[in-house]
Design a protein that fits this description.
mainly alpha, 380 residues
Length: 380
């Protein structure tokens, strides 16, 4: 299921970016976050949580959770696109919160049933799921508290982006980039344990500040920079060569970290629009184009071969990974430019992000076709 969720997410991202000039901002963002990102993250967590807890693989029944999340996201997008489907928003939120709650409970059970301590990345995943549940409950609460509907939507947005997607990404990036570079970093575990409280506090303050009291967002934004700054410093010491390369997934993952920090700072600044010029800032689109696109395409370049053929890694995996990562450094630069332009309200930034993503999709399709059709020569 994971390879299908990857391609579904990439297709949803490209469609939303191309659709955004003709659709409402909320509908396009939910196509990206609720239809593309949320089911993929649920599927990835189902794969990684057994690894982090050193327990058996996830049961096949767990595959229903990404499907529930996808159905919930599709209902929300339909409700935002068709006024006659207003019931789709609470219905979609209920489906998604059910799936998120079930995944959180399953993770806690795996934690309780394991021997020893889990990998610290698990705590980031559980915090991310808690943020998602809170974000979805905020949307459900807005129906009962209409006078606070606008504030609750802002709370929902930031708990979803910085909380659910951001915390998941930070935990994954800390482990994934050293793996991509082939240089394990012994400080990864201690750093993840030390930095989670800063990231959670920053997320909550930014979300509450954006919803009700702007100055809190500045404090939250400052706290939020601590974990990625420490992570980036470690990467620059140990993986600098791989990060500045023309090919591979490492440049894309590094660009994703930079895009995450940049969009978080834009969101904090935008929470207190002191001048009229700040109204043109679009932190949500900077988050999409500068962070989500390089993150998912970079992670896919590294992980798709493993997900397609689990087990012992051989030359087939190496060749497919090389083909998926070709010109990854160039794509990272283009995504960075797209995120910066989209963040300051330039529509061409979204178009650039969409074109770059579509080119990667075509490259991935060719690489997969070659890998799945061409058979290795039998020894003579």
């Amino acid at each position: 299921m994971l390879p299908a969720l990857v391609f579904l997410a990439l297709a949803a991202f490209a469609a939303a970016l191309l659709w955004s000039p003709h659709a409402g901002r909320a509908a396009a963002l939910h196509l990206i976050l609720a239809v593309g990102a949320m089911p993929l993250i649920f599927g990835a967590m189902g794969h990684f949580i057994p690894v982090l807890t050193r327990t058996r693989s996830a049961p096949s029944a767990l595959a229903i959770l990404p499907v529930l999340a996808l159905a919930g996201g599709a209902l929300v997008v339909a409700a935002l696109g068709f006024p006659g489907m207003l019931w789709g928003q609470p219905a979609g939120a209920l489906l998604a919160v059910t799936a998120a709650g079930a995944l959180f409970v399953w993770s806690r059970r795996r934690r309780a049933g394991m021997l020893g301590r889990p990998h610290p990345c698990l705590a980031w995943y559980e915090a991310a799921l808690a943020c998602l549940v809170a974000a979805l409950l905020a949307i459900l609460a807005s129906a009962l508290w209409p006078q606070q509907a606008s504030a609750l939507r802002r709370l929902h947005l930031h708990l979803n982006t910085l909380g659910f997607v951001g915390l998941t990404a930070m935990g994954t990036l800390a482990v994934l980039l050293p793996t991509v570079a082939g240089r394990p970093h012994p400080q990864t575990g201690p750093r993840l344990r030390r930095d989670l409280s800063w990231a959670v506090a920053g997320t909550l303050l930014v979300a509450l500040g954006a919803a009700w009291y702007g100055p809190l967002a500045w404090v939250g934004g400052a706290l939020w920079t601590i974990p990625p700054a420490r992570l980036a410093a470690g990467w620059l010491r140990s993986c600098r060569v791989e990060i500045v390369a023309l090919h591979g997934a490492a440049p894309l993952l590094a660009a994703a970290l930079a895009g995450l920090v940049g969009s978080a700072m834009l969101g904090a600044v935008n929470a207190i629009p002191a001048t009229a010029t700040l109204h043109s800032l679009q932190p949500a689109w900077a988050f999409v184009a500068g962070f989500i696109l390089p993150l998912v395409s970079g992670a896919a370049s590294q992980l798709l071969p493993v997900w397609l053929r689990p087990g012992v890694q051989d030359g087939w995996h190496v060749r497919l990974r090389d083909n998926l990562g070709r010109y990854g450094g160039a794509r990272a630069v283009l995504f960075g430019i797209a995120g910066g332009a989209a963040g300051i309200g330039r529509e061409w930034g979204l178009l650039l992000g969409a074109v770059t993503l579509i080119l990667f999709l075509l490259q991935a399709c060719v690489a997969l076709a070659q890998a799945l059709i061409v058979r290795p020569r039998s020894p003579s």
